[in-house]
Amino acid sequence: MLTYSFDENNHKSLYQQLYTFIKNDILEGHLIADEKLPSKRTFAKNLGISIITIENAYAQLMAEGYIYSLPKKGFYVSPINNKTPLIPAKMIHKPSIKKKSYWCDFSSNQTPANLFPFTTWSKLMKDVLNEHQSELMVNPPVGGIYELREAISQHLKEFRNMDVEPERIIIGAGTEYLYGLLVQLLGFDLLYAVENPGYNKILNVYSSLGVKCVPIDMDEQGILVNQLEDLDVDIAHISPSHHFPTGIIMPITRRYELLGWANKKEHRYIIEDDYDSELRLSGHPIPALQSIDLSEKVIYMNTFTKTLASTIRISYMVLPHHLLELYNKKLSFYACTVSNF
Q: Biggest alpha carbon distance in the chain?
C-alpha cells in the first residue's frame, strides 16, 4: 500500500500534495506502467484523509494522462515514455549584468521608485476597488472609460488651454499603438514626415507600419515648412512645445506658418506630439498648437510618462470632429487597450 506524509504547513491542499506524490512516483519509475493503484476507499483509510481528496487527486492525474481507469476494476498507471531527466544534466550559467549607478541619470526614461507616491496610489486603488466594482467589470467603449477621458479633458483645459470634449479623446496603451491607429485612419498611401533631428523611434514605427516617411530638417524655430511643401508631405509629425533633442520651442509665427501649410490641402494634417511639455523650470506650460487651430488640422497626442511614471502605459490623442466621425466608422471594432482598473 502506498504511504505518504502530508505537510500541514504546505500552502498546497491535501489533494494537490497527493497528486504530486503519485505523479513523482510515476515519473521516477516507482510506479510502473499498468500497475494498479489502491481503491479510493482503502487509500483514504490508509492515509487518514477523506475519499473526496483521493477522488480529486485521481481526477487530476487522469486529466493529465498519468493514470487511466477501467470500469469496475479501478485505476492504473499509464505507460509513459519519460526519458527526460527530472534534474538538468548541466546548469546553464547566466552571466550577471552589473548596472552602473550614477548620482543623476538624465538618459533613462524611468521614475525613481522613491519618488512615486505609492501610499496615495494604493489608497486610491483600494477606494476604487471597494466603491466601483460593477463599473470595473463593464467593457469600456472604444475610446476608453468616460471618467478618464473626462479627467483628461479638464486637465487639457486647465493646463494646455484646449477646449476638448471627452468624446474626442481616444485612450491607448502607449503612443506607438496610437500611431498605428492614426495610419489606419489617415491612410497608408500618404507621405509622413518627422523632424530631423528627432526621436528615431517615431520614424522606426512609421517604417514598420509600411508607410513612406521622410525626415525634414529644422532651424532654430523648428521644422522647415518649405521642405514640407517641396516634398508635398501629407502628414507632419512634430513636437512644437519641447522638441527632442534640441529643446526648441516653436514660436507663434512658425506655428501659424505650419497651420497655413496644412490648410492648403484637405488631406494634410499635423500630429502634435506634446510629450514632455508639462514640466518647465520657469514660467507656465507653452500653449498647445491645437489650441490655436481653427480649421481642425491638428491631431494632439500626449502621455503620462513624465507626469506619473513611464510604466503607466496610458497615452491619448485628441481627434478633430470630422476625423472622430471617420474613426467611429472605420475603427470602432477595436477594443480599448487600457483596462478599467
A: 90
Give the separation between CA 101 and CA 90, rounded to whole angstroms. 34
Phi, psi of 182 (to 5 degrees): -65, -40
pTM of the full structure: 0.71
User: In terms of DSSP bridges, do strands 74-77 and 67-70 run parallel, antiparallel, or are they unpaired?
Assistant: antiparallel
In the numeric block, which cell numbers belong to residue 147?
471618467
What are 67-103's pLDDT values in tens digits?
Answer: 999 998 999 999 877 654 444 545 545 556 666 777 7
